[in-house]
Amino acid sequence: MPKRSDIKKIMVIGSGPIIIGQAAEFDYAGTQACLALKEEGYSVVLVNSNPATIMTDKEIADKVYIEPITLEFVTRILRKERPDALLPTLGGQTGLNMAMELSKAGILEELGVELLGTKLSAIDQAEDRDLFKQLMEDLEQPIPESEIVNTVEEAVAFATEIGYPVIVRPAFTLGGTGGGMCANEEELREIAENGLKLSPVTQCLIERSIAGFKEIEYEVMRDAADNALVVCNMENFDPVGIHTGDSIVFAPTQTLSDIENQMLRDASLKIIRALKIEGGCNVQLALDPNSFKYYVIEVNPRVSRSSALASKATGYPIAKLAAKIAVGLTLDEMINPVTGTTYAMFEPALDYVVAKIPRFPFDKFENGERRLGTQMKATGEVMAIGRNIEESLLKACRSLEIGVYHNEIADLAEVSDDELVNKIVRAQDDRLFYLSEAIRRGYTIEELSKLTKIDLFFLDKLLHIFELEQELASHVGDVDVLKEAKRNGFADRKIASLWNMTADDVRAIRTENKIIPVYKMVDTCAAEFESETPYFYSTYEWENESVKSDKESIIVLGSGPIRIGQGVEFDYATVHSVKAIQAAGYEAIIMNSNPETVSTDFSISDKLYFEPLTFEDVMNVIELEQPKGVIVQFGGQTAINLAEPLSKAGVAILGTQVSDLDRAEDRDLFEQALKELDIPQPPGQTATNEEEAVEAARKIGFPVLVRPSYVLGGRAMEIVENEENLRSYMRTAVKASPDHPVLVDSYIVGRECEVDAISDGKDVLIPGIMEHIERAGVHSGDSMAVYPPQTLSKKIQDTIADYTKRLAIGLNCFGMMNIQFVIKDETVYVIEVNPRASRTVPFLSKVTNIPMAQVATKLILGQTLADLGYEDGLYPESDYVHVKAPVFSFTKLAKVDSLLGPEMKSTGEVMGSDQTLEKALYKAFEASYFHLPSFGNVVFTVSDDAKEEALGLARRFADIGYSIFATQGTAKYFAENGLMSTIVNKLGEDDENDIPALVRTGKVQAIVNTVGTKRTLDEDGATIRSSAIEHGIPLFTALDTADAMIRVLESRGFTTQAI
Predict the structure, then answer these.
(1) Whole-angstrom distance, CA of residue 709 vs CA of residue 743
(2) Which of 9, 521, 634, 1031 registers the highest number of CB atoms within 10 A of its CB?
């Protein structure tokens, strides 16, 4: 069937900010879809609130609106643009929910806008538990016994009837928020109560727990002509009970017999045909390991998180084809764009194993609740390809960027047997490493399988890895054993530690004996007939399929898995860098391990190597490709940390050189450079142990900011007020040593701002200054920021531009660098320099219209700013005001305190732009789901040092008609200064009148809560903050953010004043 010609303009809704449960994969899908629709000749209008990604670049659609995804703004754009159709199934749950809302509001009907792709009725059938149950019964597909409840008592009654354990799933929430598993009535009461509160329709599904079954996923496609196929089937290493986003996954399925595979395949295709899905769809099934009994767990009627993984694992671009299906094309008439030879109707066949391991944020949140369940907690994932499970699993382990290079964490050898078993039974994010430790201790795989319900087949693979370790240890220097270990994915470093030599020695033995990897092509059809893709993985076999071309090449190192502190922004910079390399006539080669993002799409680079970003794996590719050089500036800290070892091995690093990277990263060298350049910085010094740190602090004077050197996103950064706290920090938060010194700095409270500079060694272009709304002390990634700056005098802006130029030239920067300043009493201090692209690149590129990463790459390749038409100095400001606001995922991270501080906690960001600061702030707050009504009640509970400032804010809230509630100490201070407020209790003194109770009953519209500078956790405050987060009540832990919100409310209302 030909594509539709009655539609000209299509609107696509994006997925909004990146949060846990809805990350970069949806952005990848949306980007693919927009490009596919443009390719077919349609005019595309895109709405998305996230500035950090490729999707909101100008080239992606004909018109890109970076606006909040709320009824108010999307309706406005619909009325302005009048599209013929809307495509909502590529924007994750956010896009789907928005389409439902528009449909309910009647706006689509009024404007005659058609919904493309899967129909709303089908989406309803898959999302609404009752309709889904009905459909499954009609199709005779088994689902776990379940009941929908609206009260806790109904839940308990049903559980008593079918027996525990049961699972609670709240309706219409993202990534399983608020749900969980309950083993008894007490747990059920607690989880059901919370789940009912979180569900927008106050309903939860209570269902029989099928924990322990095998969890299998099918990624399927269907078109309007009822052609359907399976793109990829995947099997979870972890049995049912852990959210698939948090599970280790293998593709294709590993432990199913042919009969089981066909049975589940038939079920999946039968379901999507019955639902009349048009496009991609994800079906999750549970299989009883001891019989042919299975259950359908869930159907996602949209492109899902696994679609990105399935696309990259098979070389079959699901989102691209789904978009084309939505406009009427069919699978049997489209050619797979990756191969260019096979039809899209051809099911991919794999002759390799793909492993996916999730990346969790717990290296940053030591206090977080690490137990895994039905709620997703991972922020990103890595994928690795090998010829066997061992190879792909070990490659995935060393891709995780958690400091491991094998399936072992050294510290676990110290753990007691009891604790070991406990960690294996109660799954945490690091269970794989505990399992591996148990096998090393001699637990049998049968015992472990009983404890965990993990399939014996997988445990046997872990056992095989251990057997190879023993084999290596007893055959030091044996070339045959070395070969076998490399075929099973062992890293040189692991072999070196077993052989008591260095990794370089092992590499020398390998090269001498020609044990080097070959690169295989991901050709999507297991070589059944000819097809070519530019996409490779390494393995130790015979024939090399990656042929070095005649063109001179440049390798760009990606940033690995998405994690807090190093998000999708670095992927954005990588993609732009590749565009510039290709424009300069070189072959661009990307190396990365992250399947969720645009940089690892087949169409971006000339060649893609899906490999771990470790020295060994990168070196292997370099030796094959012999590039002109390697670019490390755009891969965040991951790539920068590889610069030194690569340079030592004789590889050319393009851009800023290693010695200069070191001058920005190494404390003592950096201070020396600042002194030479005559630039002020807060006084500080380096300490390698507890006593040195205390001595440094005495000399500088408290408060001090302490942090380890060479880390990402301010991990373990703290502001410390006194000696006792400093000693406690040195003992618990970091392990200081001469290799890993701790930096101790005077903490200056002032306004903070940052710049990105682009330098060719002679001139320095500064696209813009971003001023932070929160004062210094809040990590730059967690601050709201505004461009152009609103309160910086011309003199200060000139000083910043001058210091920036001095630093860029003085540190021999070629390409890009990011500098953070703090301003106190009209003095500008430098607090940090990152000799690489930072997370502000996408935002600044979009608001200034300078493609910063592309410009920087062109300079790295030898052009000058003058060649490109840019002048030295600060670029002229834009007329519009642009505000960046951070977005957090605290609902998913129990026990992580939501206080803003020097350590980064946000997972994503949104942008609001308008003609005035107030309007831009309003949009930024709306887009980050901080909505305040025009009047209501606000609670103040603030520490003594903030009371005076809080009083001013409270007065302004009162002036616009808000009622002020405050806890005892705060209320007393307000009253003494002539402001009346209603006293509320902190916690537990009176269950009706404490803050969590008021939050629960909807009596509170916002909470302002600041904490003094104690190193001990204030438990009351933490409970208050988490109650606000669970109920989606705006919570302000920095007074500057609250001030910004009041400005918005003041600007939206009229002032009423008596004469």
Answers:
(1) 7
(2) 634
